Amino acid sequence: MTMTTVDRVVALHRVPLFADVPGRVLAALAMRATEVEVAAGDVLIEQGAVEDHLYAVVSGRFVARDGERTLRELGPGSTVGELAALAPEPRSASVTALEDGLLLRIDKVLLDELLADRPELARAVIASLVRMLRNSPAGE
Predict the structure, then answer these.
(1) Pairing mode, if any, of strands 79-80 and 34-38?
(2) In the predicted model, is pLDDT for residue 123 greater than 60?
(3) Is the dihedral of CA 40, 42, 46, 52 positive or negative?
């Protein structure tokens, strides 16, 4: 499936991380994001792997696990790996597709470039990460 830029912008606007980013700024990100299709059972992220990208879930359902412990289920509008895209470190959990899905992959180099060039994106991402941390239960 190939998404149009408009479809990508709409999908990214559903993501809290990018919800406050103006459409024209998000279009620059959307055009350069990579579409990733997965099948049910595919492992999207392997716990312990060092990677430098995040995913925005367009469709499908995913589960994040720390070993055998389920941390959360993710669906459209969710992000996966947002901290790794800002500061690459070993992944704290594995993420597996529960059903077929489509994601937009945003690499650190692209995110860094856009954050440097577009301060409004940086402000929106920082505000979103602060909200996520405030709403996260202690210990996760």
Answers:
(1) unpaired
(2) yes
(3) negative
* Cα–Cα nearest to 103, from 139, 62, 136, 47: 62
Residues paired with 69 in a beta bridge: 66
Q: Which of 41, 4, 12, 46 is nearest to 114 (CA)?
A: 12
Residue-level pLDDT at 139? 43
Complete edge-to-edge strand list for the sheet that includes strand 43-45: 43-45, 94-97, 62-66, 69-74
The total number of residues written for the chain in this structure: 140
50: alpha, beta or left, given left = phi > 0 and alpha = psi -120 to 50?
beta
Cβ atoms within 10 Å of 124's Cβ, excluding its own: 21
Instruction: List the domains of the chain with CATH numbers.
Output: 5-135 (2.60.120.10)
pTM: 0.84
